[in-house]
Amino acid sequence: MLAYFFLNLNAVLYNMNEKIRIHLADDHQVLIDGMKTLLNTVSNFEVVGFSLEGSTLYDEVKSNNTSILILDISMPVKDGIEVVKEFAKKGFPCKVIILSSYDDLKIIQEVMKLGVNGYLTKQCAGENIVEAINAVASGEDYFCNVVREKIFNSATKNIPKLNKYKPTINLLLTSREIEIITLIALEYSGKEISEQLFISANTVETHRKNIMKKLKAKNTISLVKFALKNKLIKA
């Protein structure tokens, strides 16, 4: 919880003199209207535009100086995946958060590899979208719990030592830190963790340092012992 506090604090400080400019792209006008109403209640957010199809999105987000694009996968003319491919080819004009009904792992992995900054299912949007926007504006990647669980399970499904039972965990650690420490204990390198969880190597290292500090661990062996003690992995 403390980590989220500082993350949100950084977002506020980052935007003291400049609002986060948001563009919405979805093929349902009702959803766009609802999102506009919600996001415009946040003092440091400004919804600067919206699109019902994807063919002109690149030019639109450049022209209105968008900070973050909230993008649906299912879009007419040019769908969300095609939009992200265009962004990757031309150079991302803004940060991108996928907001979709789809939670298929292959789709998630494809857009993550292309360089999007976050992925939320529409089912969790109401409770997570504000946090996601602040996180991405602050330079973090953000995935809702459903997406993170799918990514993590995929990353570890072929590792026999992984304990499939829900562990009793020190409340100091966030769910992302639990994922990181588990993979460290399973001898994943920083680069491998980065690739498996679709986060940058710098983000992995930041999490590792935070974990070490929270647990007062002196080295990696201490992290492995913690993982074993708390049943994150099997001996």
TrEMBL record:
Record's keyword terms, sorted: DNA-binding, Phosphoprotein, Transcription, Transcription regulation
Alphabetical list of PROSITE patterns matching this protein: HTH_LUXR_2, RESPONSE_REGULATORY
Originating organism: Flavobacterium degerlachei
Keyword Amino-acid biosynthesis: no
Domain HTH luxR-type as annotated: residue spans: 166-231
GO biological process: phosphorelay signal transduction system; regulation of DNA-templated transcription
Family matches, as SMART domains: HTH_LUXR (SM00421), REC (SM00448)
Modified residues (4-aspartylphosphate): 72
Record-linked InterPro entries: CheY-like_superfamily (IPR011006), NreC/VraR/RcsB-like_REC (IPR058245), Sig_transdc_resp-reg_C-effctor (IPR016032), Sig_transdc_resp-reg_receiver (IPR001789), Tscrpt_reg_LuxR_C (IPR000792), WalR-like (IPR039420)
GO molecular function annotation: DNA binding
Residue stretches making up the Response regulatory domain: 21-137
Pfam families: GerE, Response_reg
Name of the protein: Two component transcriptional regulator, LuxR family
